[in-house]
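Supplementary Methods S3. Complex input for the 2-OXO-4-methylpentanoic acid-bound model.
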Amino acid sequence: MENSDWKNLPFGYYKTDYNIRCYYKNGKWSDLEVSSSEHLNIHIAATVLHYGQEAFEGMKAYRCRDGKIRLFRWEENARRLIFSAEGIKMAPLPMELFREAIFRTVALNKKYVPPYGSGATLYIRPVLFGSGADLGVKPSSEYTFIVFVTPVGPYFKGGITPVDTMICRNVDRAAPLGTGIYKVGGNYAASLRAQMTAKEGGYSTVIFLDAREKKYIDECGPANFFGIKDNTYITPKSESILNSITNMSLIALADRMGMKTERRKIPVEELSTFEEAGACGTAAVISPIRKIFDPGENITYEYCKDGKPGKATMMLYNKLTGIQNGDEPDEFGWMTEVEE
Ligand code: PLP
Ligand code: COI
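Predicted complex, serialized as structure tokens:
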């Protein structure tokens, strides 16, 4: 990928050289297996195919200013995969095996880590699924864990360019006591009808409301939501959203930067009081929101009226990406070097 157009890299799949696999059978995890095939041989009765027993993670490897490759808060992704696995009754992957698998996959594909300053990164996709054959609805006795990597640009085209979004009132991605807090594939399948409606209307992404009352902001399709007013970073508290590692980090950074932070219910009407709004996540990084259209009330909430991201959003974006790219001191100890 010597002469790649890194700055225009989409968020999509690009073949790299190696991926890693590992299998759980008879109550034990196998050693890691390195493969150069892009395909898997799956049993036709595997529980993942019939009953959606699957969870995944999303993380990134950064080529830093000093030339080293580093990962951001990998332990949090390892913990969340264990949490997701337990949520849909899969065998959890031990932290140490997760660590070895992701660091090895990145090192094996180091030539695909985009250069420092390009704005692109190497996306890491760990996936855990039920691979044992069964027909009854019950947890599988066998699991497969795979990790592949692919170089990516920002999820929303234009990176830090503000995006237009749309509230969804006729589809729920997750029920209040359902699987919204787990990073399981089924939540994303459930979000597609809403996502396509938003796309067809010319919006970059959908914003879901709480499924119980349809009164409060939940999260965006692929990212958490935040709003800013009166020097305060405000993000939803909900029983059906993913606990975003990026959001957790922004709360810590906002606090360090002297802002107040609140994790609480956000009534839809409160959108009119925010000075800034944004979506945050590993793939999305920080995407400032320019507009939120609510079809229920036929109202459009507008931010970034001059077309530019707001001041607090930019400060948070610069601080977060500064740490990830090694331009800023890693005050919180979030970055871990990948031995090449
Ligand atoms: N919410 C959803 C539904 C997501 O898919 C993601 C992406 O992982 C996030 C939020 C952001 O989470 P994180 O910051 O841990 O990537
Ligand atoms: C991520 O941000 O890593 C995700 O997994 C979101 C995904 C929908 C692209």
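The chain is about 20% helix and 30% strand. Residues 58, 155, 222, 281-283 surround 2-OXO-4-methylpentanoic acid (ligand 2) (CB under 6 Å).
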